[in-house]
Amino acid sequence: MAGELALNLSVQPTGGNVSNALVPGVLETDLLPPTRGTALFVIRCVIPSLYLLIITVGLLGNITLMKIFISNSAMRSVPNIFISSLAAGDLLLLVTCMPVDASRYLFEEWMFGKVGCKLIPAIQLTSVGVSVFTLTALSADRYKAIVNPMDIQTSNAVLWTCFKAFAIWIISMMLAVPEAVFSEVAHINGTDNISFRACIPYPQTDDLHPKIHSVLIFLVYFLIPLTIISIYYYHIARTLIKSAHNIPGENSEHSKRQMETRKRLAKIVLVFVGFFAVCWFPNHVLYMYRSFNYSEIDPSLGHMIITLVARVLSFCNSCVNPFALYFLSESFRRHFNSQLCCRRKSHHERSTSYLHSSSAVRMTSLKSNAKNTMTTLTLLNGHNLKQEMSL
């Protein structure tokens, strides 16, 4: 988030310039005493390297995830469309927010000009909105699949889900417009009369704006969505507990398979939500605490470490979902492994004979047809099992 992801800092105006204020773009490392030059050197080398590692891992995981879901028709289900949109939001965060945030450890002031100060915070907030709102939509989808399975419409479910995912992006961009409107480059007066530029995501007219900004960010992008998700999963848990006692034992094989598949999908979404909450909560708390309590930058090493941990943890959320899916979904794990080994397989196929290749193709076709036949069984409630078994 612009004010939050940038540096979790708040503004206390002092007129034309902002003096000793906690503002986005101001790092505690910029104000460390000279005696900490060695520590500052280590931070400027180690932290950007850590950021680069997170970006690399996140790009690898999310791009592979999207490639699997796009290239395999069997994986194009309602949950997977939302998960692909979630991966796209994570990619946007990785390629915009993280490089900008890492640059602040290499340069002592804002380096992206007025246009960058308008665009980058809005893009960052859009990506966070896509993530949390998509998780909410995923939870709603699992709620409908488990609590109200008769309400699921299978004829155009995939198309309707694409529309929902697109609407989430539009809403997230609209909510980020104020960030672009009010963000501005300000001159900051630090310790020892050192002046530098920083990008601030709200007006500097009074000390109320940072408080309003931090509270709204916390409510809209964390507390309210997680409350809605909690309500959904409360009803999901109740339904699953009841179903364990109400399903007959003899003629319910299809119902049992369906319920097990839906439970597994609900578990995957819940893990995504749990990672989001754990990774983002420290960042939100730190941002609000600073907005309400700080009037000057705390240059202590302990405070700086807490800030770095909170920010790195929030960024890590953009690269953990593909790996969580890898361990929780056998189907995704199989496709992911095939993507990693595709070059080796391609080389092996070119070296085999035509007869052997033809046999392999025929065998693969038979397996694919058998799989499609099994996954397109229509259940008693009219819901197509293919939409639930893709993961």
From TrEMBL:
One of its GO terms (biological process) is positive regulation of respiratory gaseous exchange. PROSITE patterns: G_PROTEIN_RECEP_F1_1, G_PROTEIN_RECEP_F1_2. It comes from the Eukaryota. The keyword Cytoplasm does not apply. It is a multi-pass membrane protein. Keywords: Cell membrane, Disulfide bond, G-protein coupled receptor, Glycoprotein, Lipoprotein, Membrane, Palmitate, Phosphoprotein, Receptor, Transducer, Transmembrane, Transmembrane helix. GO terms for cellular component: cytosol; plasma membrane. This is Neuromedin-B receptor. It comes from Pelodiscus sinensis. The lineage of its organism: Eukaryota, Metazoa, Chordata, Craniata, Vertebrata.
